[in-house]
Amino acid sequence: MPKIGNIDLGEFPLLLAPMEDVSDPPFRALCKEQGADLMYTEFISSEGLIRDAAKSVQKLDIFEYERPIGIQIFGNEIDSMKQATEVTEQANPDIIDINYGCPVKKVACKGAGAGILQDIPKMVRMTAEIVKSTKLPVTVKTRLGWDENSKYIVEVAERLQDVGIQAISIHGRTRKQMYKGEADWSLIAEVKNNPRMHIPVFGNGDVFSPEIALEKKQKYGVDGVMIGRASIGYPWIFREIKHFMKTGELLAPPTMHERIEAAQRHLEMSVKWKGEKLGVLEMRRHYSNYFKGIPHFKEHRMKLVTHDNFDDLLGTFEEIKNSFDGELVV
Fold first, then answer.
1. Of 9, 50, 102, 167, which residue is the catalytic one?
2. Residue 181's pLDDT is what?
3. CA–CA distance from 90 to each of 49, 67, 83, 197, 271 (Å)?
4. Among 2, 95, 143, 285, which has the highest number of CB atoms less than 10 A from its own CB?
């Protein structure tokens, strides 16, 4: 059974990926209810934490019911990352995770996130310093390499393990690929099957269904899977995978009632946590997935993604409830 430090994650843990403007406390609450075994916060800028920037500090908010929970930090300066680790430790997470995987230009092109994959010695030094500066277990999220010609993940994972990380999550693409093409899990399997590796290895990339999750487990031997995009507006993916792995049968999709209830609760928590303006705005990316494949929904969807007033949105949810009253649409 995979363990991170002394945290037992169960037989084949399902991890919620750290996603900016997605993996916040309201969304994590829903994923936890649906069976996520380990969750990570959105990535937090080390410079922001040191400067005490409000947006960065707010992302340190974690709650008891979320445990085990990891806080993820990123940056390109070793000293800043060490200081940020100390600030993060005070928020009392179970794990500190280092983001070496974010491919976004504003992060990677400054040498942070996946950008550090162009400087492996620095990546190893930074990791070693972070491990030394905290009593908490340190984990890493990364990619196969910077581009096709630099997929050194097998060696990199071993070197990071040697300086003290306690688990690694690997997205099966290079930075250059961003999210295009198919994730290559064969290299993730190579990391897992390296006889020198003894820490948990989690795979990430294109796990969009229970069948795919089981295939990744059986074919590549990973210790667990990390789920990102498939969970956006669809926290039920966790319970569906668990049920399928246990029984071999697919659960019925959530009913219309469950979808409405989850989306409305998500909105309410979001507004409570971020304030009305941001809470309303950042919910928009979730709605199309909450109601994916629902016939005759276009008009409702348009209202959900254009209203910028909380009360108007609650009114829209009432309209949706009335329109689909008694229907268990899938």
1. 102
2. 86
3. 12, 16, 11, 30, 26
4. 143
Q: Amino acid identity of 256?
A: M
DSSP string, 36-64: -SEEEPPPEEHHHHHHT-HHHHHTT---G
Could you tell me the pTM of the whole model? 0.94
Domain range 256-323, CATH class: mainly alpha
The tens digit of pLDDT for each residue in 26-42 reads 999 999 999 999 999 99
* Element housing 155 (H / E): helix 153-162
Residues 300, 259 contacting (CB under 8 angstroms): no
Give the C-alpha separation, 197 to 154, whole Å. 10
* Percentage of the chain exceeding pLDDT 70: 98
- Active-site residue, 102 included: yes
For the chain, the structural domain boundaries read: 3-247, 256-323
3-state secondary structure of 22: coil
Residue ranges of alpha helices (H) inside 198-275 are: 210-220, 237-247, 256-274
Q: What is the pLDDT of residues 165-182, one digit of tens each?
A: 999 999 999 998 888 889
What pLDDT, on the 0 to 100 scale, is given for residue 31? 98
Q: Which residue has the tokens 């940020």?
A: 84
- The residue type of 240 is E
CATH dotted code for 3-247: 3.20.20.70
What's the CA gap between 188 and 203, in Å, rounded? 7
| 230 closest CA partner among 59, 17, 62, 38 | 17
Q: Is the pLDDT assigned to residue 296 strictly greater than 80?
A: yes
